[in-house]
Write a structure and sequence with these properties.
Layout lengths: L12 E3 L4 H4 L8 H7 L4 E3 L16 H7 L3 H16 L4 H9 L2 H5 L5 H9 L5 H13 L13 H7 L7 H11 L4 H9 L17 H7 L15 H8 L6
Parallel strand pairs: 1-2
Length: 243
């Protein structure tokens, strides 16, 4: 479909330096020296479109990231959460918060994913949506019997039953519980399940109109406006850039 010349840095091997966050603490050693030693006229560090990834449109919109970047599990999880909220008759705000709540896990960073996700979308959504996304992360750890939300059984498996929650998550959950938008975020946690094996596949296009009304897509495309988060979207477009 695309010949070599359609890609940047044509005719050379484009080396991918793993980001420190991907290897630090894993036992792998810092790969920088080894890669830097390979640099010559035939070996450069990747900048721009990576042929191993689908090409993004020049002006990407939200669903392009779902289709072309986010991993399958994240996409399925987000679409199912949002569809279940929609089927239960919740407002578009709730549906949007469910649709977006874990986007940071799609192809960005996992640690503090609720906080990163909220920041990614804050310039484009109602503040209540971003707030609910941020606080779903701490609220996930706290049961609320009044709405039938229990501590997730899979968290015991993920982290061990003796996992102790860090103070910042306790503090933020306490803050969220006393906030007028608490129930928006709580609903995100209630639709935040991975039991979707028996759930029919959800077509992302069913959310096109809701996104149109609730996500202020920048005219220049996500990643290319002047918002304070544009660089974060660019990192998802070009996750392998050297700098
Ligand atoms: Fe989450
Ligand atoms: Fe989730």
């Amino acid at each position: 479909m695309c010949d070599d010349h359609a890609w940047p840095q044509a005719g050379r091997e484009r080396m991918i330096m793993p980001s420190p966050i991907a290897w630090i603490g894993t036992g792998a050693s810092n790969p920088e020296d080894e890669y830097l030693a390979r640099m010559d006229e035939k070996h450069v560090f990747m900048m721009g479109d990576n042929p191993a990834l689908p090409k993004m449109p020049d002006r990407p919109v939200l669903l392009d990231f779902f289709r072309l970047r986010f991993n399958d599990i994240a996409v399925r999880h987000l679409l199912t959460s949002a569809k279940r909220a929609l089927d239960d008759g919740h407002s578009e705000k709730i549906v949007m918060a469910c649709l977006l709540h874990d986007i940071s896990n799609g192809c960005f960073v996992r640690p503090d994913h609720g906080y990163w996700g909220a920041q990614l979308v804050a310039p484009y959504v109602d503040p209540e949506v971003a707030w609910a996304m941020q606080y779903h992360q701490p609220l996930r750890y706290f049961a609320d019997e009044s709405v039938g939300y229990e501590y997730p059984a899979n968290y015991d498996k993920f982290f061990g039953a003796d996992f102790e929650l860090p103070a910042y998550l306790r503090r933020d959950a306490e803050y969220a519980r006393n906030h007028p938008w608490y129930m928006t975020s709580r609903l995100v946690t209630m639709y935040d399940t991975y039991f979707f094996d028996d759930y029919p596949e959800v077509d992302p296009e069913i959310f096109t109109d809701i996104i149109g009304r609730n996500f202020r897509q920048p005219e220049e495309g996500l990643g290319f406006d002047t918002s304070p988060v544009a660089h974060m979207w660019r990192t998802m477009i070009w996750p392998n850039n050297f700098l």
